[in-house]
Amino acid sequence: MKKIITFIILLLHSNYISSQTNLKKCNTTFLVNNEIDNNTDYAKARNLTLDIDLTKVRNTIKIPIVIHIIHRNSHSNIGSGTNISDAQIEDQLRILNEDYSKTNPEFPNPPRNTFLNNAGNPDIEFCLATVDPDGNTTTGITRTATSKINWDADDDDNSNPCHESNGMKRSSCGGKDSWDPKKYLNIWVCDLTNSQSNGMTLGYAYLPGLLANPFNTSDDYKDGLVVDYRYFGTIGVAAISSDGRTPTHEIGHYLGLMHTFCEEYDNQGNPVCCDNDNNNFGGYVDDTPATKDIYFGSVSANTNNNTCNDLSYSNIFTSNVLDMDENYMSYASNTWMFSNGQVDVMLATLNTSEINGGRSALKNSDVSTNCSNIISSSINISSKNNAIMYPNPAESHIYIQSVEQILSISLSNILGEIVIHKSDLENRSIEISNLKNGIYLVNIKTKSGHITKKLIKE
Ligand SMILES: [Zn+2]
């Protein structure tokens, strides 16, 4: 496979990356191809066939996760700079779990409905671990101060044990050692600015296969996701352009998915057509159309890219259809779906043993977890008729989660006047930026009754 480095040039009106013009959305293809060239065990594992008997994985699959925040020494306070807040982490986990249960806000009426019938539900839940590898209680978050300012995702020089694309995964390199990757999904959040090119990478993940050889575990430590701290969640220090879909995309890779667009070029360097995710190395997806080159724009009812003739490829389509730009595994600026075929590949990956290039040990992990993914609050929402609201104090949005379905939410001011009322939501956000600063009462109505919470708007 060819090694391809794609630089995206975007002008972003963000305080955090306005000085940088080279923004690389995902570095997975580059790193995976280098690994295949240098690691024969990995190359072999990437060629193995997945166990596609999906009757074995019918129920919701819960995956224990640990989030390693690697922050600068100077950002010692939680919530400052690279040391992102608990609320920002909770916000990302909310988005991730919406996307992997097809309850993201774009459904049931997405901006265009071209591929509505192809949209699948992975039914996978990501839950913070509550026990660490030593048996100690944990929030599922680790925080490590480092003298390193940032990490260059393009540095994959394996002769240097602290090469920067994987250095954040080693305590001896100024990062944090991974937790057993057969039991935990490790996510490192750090600064991925590339100081050499004045660019940055949003994230990357290895396709499955690093854990395939139980007799050579020297590369196991690389397994997991790396995400820039400005593209983790949508609040706190997140970039204005962050929609929280970088981890959604990277976990797609982690569970065996390729990009939906062709990553090959002809002799003149012009992009060509191919069905990128229906080949070897994470293929077998037959319901995403062949697509030439990368589309970075937004997707709406008027988007009509059709770069390749689908009748020339083996797939489920009986006519030449549009490109599926709304797929999470594309680079479009707004995405909202996995296809049914992609869901099958992810479930097959979770059904297949690590030795055979899958992640069934992770699916069967017995690590205890907290699926509310609430870190900062001690409220136990496992009891009926209880709810969690965060952040508080809040500036622009609040999020409310309840075990029971929420029938309605109303906010009233200290005079008792209702200023916001919503009745069509379930664990969704409420915009409060138009409210004056002050104290409000939030009344949450569920089937079992009412819950009232005090909110400070600032
Ligand atoms: Zn990618």
Could you tell me the radius of gyration in angstroms? Answer: 22 Å
Bound molecules: zinc ion
Helix content range of the residues, please? Answer: 10-25%
**CA(first)-CA(last) distance:** 53 Å
Strand content: 15-25%
CATH C-level class of the largest domain is Alpha Beta
Characterize the largest beta sheet: strand count, sense, and whether it forms a barrel: 7 strands, mixed
Can you identify the CATH superfamily of the largest domain?
Answer: Collagenase (Catalytic Domain)
Q: Report mean pLDDT, rounded to a whole number.
A: 88
Query: CATH fold name of the largest domain, please?
Result: Collagenase (Catalytic Domain)
What do you see in this structure?
The protein is of the alpha/beta class and 458 residues long. It folds into two domains: 363 residues, Collagenase (Catalytic Domain); 71 residues, Immunoglobulin-like. The chain has seven helices and 20 strands. The strands form five sheets. Strands 3, 5, 6, 7, 10, 11 and 13 form a seven-stranded mixed beta sheet that branches. It has a four-stranded mixed beta sheet with strand order 1-2-9-8, with no helix packed on it. Strands 17-16-19-20 form a four-stranded antiparallel beta sheet, with no helix packed on it. Helix 1 packs across helix 2. The longest helix is centred in the first third of the chain and has 14 residues. Bound molecules: zinc ion. Zinc ion binds next to helix 5. The site of zinc ion has 5 residues, from helix 5.
